[in-house]
Amino acid sequence: MTAASEVPARIPLMYRLWLLWIEPVAALVGSYLAVFDPDRCIPQFTVLLDQLAAVYLLFAFNEAVVLRAAAADLRVWRALVLGMVLCDVAHLWAAGRALRGWEGEWRWEDGVNLGMLGGPLVLRLAFLAGVGMERSGKRGKGM
């Protein structure tokens, strides 16, 4: 059995679907919107949106490429997901600072943005906590 074919037994489906497929696509869409349709995001801050697009591209690459390349190494998965958690917390903190007190003026895009930050953060924290993960007595690449 190859290392890549061992992944389904180690990484539960919900994590694989989100981290390998759904979020990389969402990150690419976010990157596209930030660069090519900035008025939909925040029209006054084009340079910041370009930099944010770079972060989204990194997310998409790490999830779609790096996690597949390290399919059997749970340590790599945990390290990347922890980095994404740190990024999520910083994004939520920044959004909270920007939107605090303006709840009545939020656009639907603001709600989607907060949902796309908070929902995946919960999933990532569950992954790091081992929710749904198989436990084995041996230590090594998997644990």
From TrEMBL:
<feature type="domain" description="DUF7704">
    <location>
        <begin position="10"/>
        <end position="131"/>
    </location>
</feature>
<keyword id="KW-0812">Transmembrane</keyword>
<feature type="transmembrane region" description="Helical">
    <location>
        <begin position="114"/>
        <end position="133"/>
    </location>
</feature>
<feature type="transmembrane region" description="Helical">
    <location>
        <begin position="17"/>
        <end position="36"/>
    </location>
</feature>
<dbReference type="InterPro" id="IPR056121">
    <property type="entry name" value="DUF7704"/>
</dbReference>
<keyword id="KW-1133">Transmembrane helix</keyword>
<feature type="transmembrane region" description="Helical">
    <location>
        <begin position="76"/>
        <end position="94"/>
    </location>
</feature>
<keyword id="KW-0472">Membrane</keyword>
<dbReference type="Pfam" id="PF24803">
    <property type="entry name" value="DUF7704"/>
</dbReference>
<protein>
    <recommendedName>
        <fullName>DUF7704 domain-containing protein</fullName>
    </recommendedName>
</protein>
<feature type="transmembrane region" description="Helical">
    <location>
        <begin position="42"/>
        <end position="64"/>
    </location>
</feature>
